[in-house]
Design a protein that fits this description.
Elements (H helix, E strand, L loop, with lengths): L4 E9 L3 E8 L1 H36 L6 H34 L6 E4 H11 L1 H6 L2 E7 L5 E4 L1 H19 L2 E12 L6 E9 L21 H6 L6 H11 L3 E7 L3 E9 L2
Parallel strand pairs: 4-6
Antiparallel strand pairs: 1-2, 3-5, 6-7, 7-9, 8-9
Helix pairs in contact: 1-2, 2-7, 3-5, 5-7
The structure holds adenosine-5'-diphosphate.
GO molecular function: ATP binding; phosphoprotein phosphatase activity; phosphorelay sensor kinase activity
Catalytic activity: ATP + protein L-histidine = ADP + protein N-phospho-L-histidine
Protein name: histidine kinase
């Protein structure tokens, strides 16, 4: 690690002393490198579908102008690429919004069991297509947290969607429990776990999974419509709620993501 120290000398008046300011800019430099990486990643992620769109527009204007079958096929690909850009922009906006809200702890009382049921219903078509059964277990009728309902819905959607997309055909289990004393939490908390029984993730990837645009298998993520931002958004929302997140995975057995949130 290199540290650069800038030093500003403030004029002294004889007999009244000298003020010297030292500023450690290594953190600023790191933030600047991260910002540049982020912009490069976003540009790359947007450019890929954009290039495809422009290419197909050219083909439709030229060689494929009178080929009806090709036109339908190309329009379908173009709609997919457009959808990919739309998802990316939506996720980028969500990420920037949660980052902006980071200091303000949400204040609403949110009932989690009902929220999970509603997310499960919304994901029924995706689960059906992937031949996945989503089970929900909860030891109470109502479980309250202090939070932001839209952001908590997004956390649940991202986790369950990933379990369905990457877990393969079979079952996904959602378990909700609490309120109870939880490790690493000051007051009582609630626990939410989403488990799949898919191929699992090699442990070398686990520490980086919540980084923006980090994917274990880029090709598969793109094929599944992933933006690479889902878990980064989850991490930021959980942090804003003063909660904790733990990812556990075993190759060949599956993946389990546990979120702990302060109870309301
Ligand atoms: P994406 O939009 O690509 O799904 P995420 O941030 O949600 O991005 O997830 C990051 C990566 O973590 C994914 O690309 C995938 O490789 C891996 N991943 C996430 N959830 C699971 C899971 N349940 N099983 C296996 N791999 C997963």
């Amino acid at each position: 690690t290199s540290y650069e120290v800038t030093c500003s000398y403030v004029d002294s008046v004889v007999g009244q002393g000298v003020v010297v300011c030292f500023q450690d800019i290594s953190l600023l430099e790191k933030a600047e490198i991260m910002r540049r990486d982020f912009v490069a990643n976003v540009s790359h992620e947007l450019r890929t579908p954009l290039t495809a769109l422009l290419g197909f527009i050219e083909t439709l204007r030229g060689p494929a102008r009178n080929d009806e079958a090709a036109r339908d096929r190309f329009l379908e690909i173009m709609a997919n690429e457009g959808g990919r850009m739309e998802r990316l922009v939506k996720d980028l906006l969500s990420l920037s919004q949660v980052e902006g809200d980071a200091r303000m702890r949400p204040t609403e009382r949110v009932e989690m069991f009902g929220l999970i049921q509603s997310v499960r219903n919304a994901l029924t078509p995706l689960a059906r297509d992937a031949r996945v059964q989503v089970n929900l277990r909860c030891d109470q009728d109502e479980v309250f947290v202090q939070g932001d309902p839209d952001q908590l819905r997004q956390v649940l959607t991202n986790l369950v969607e990933n379990a369905i997309k990457y877990g393969g055909a079979g079952e996904v289990d959602i378990t909700l429990s609490g309120p109870a004393e939880m490790e690493n939490l000051r007051g009582p908390g609630i626990s939410l776990t989403v488990t799949d029984h898919g191929p699992g993730i090699d442990e070398l990837h686990l520490p980086r999974l919540t980084e923006r645009f980090y994917r274990v298998d880029s090709h598969r993520s793109r094929e599944m419509g992933g933006t690479g931002l889902g878990l980064a958004i989850v991490k930021h929302i959980v942090n804003r709620h003063r909660g904790r997140m733990r990812i556990a995975s075993t190759l060949g057995e599956g993946t389990s993501i546990r979120i702990i949130l302060p109870a309301a």
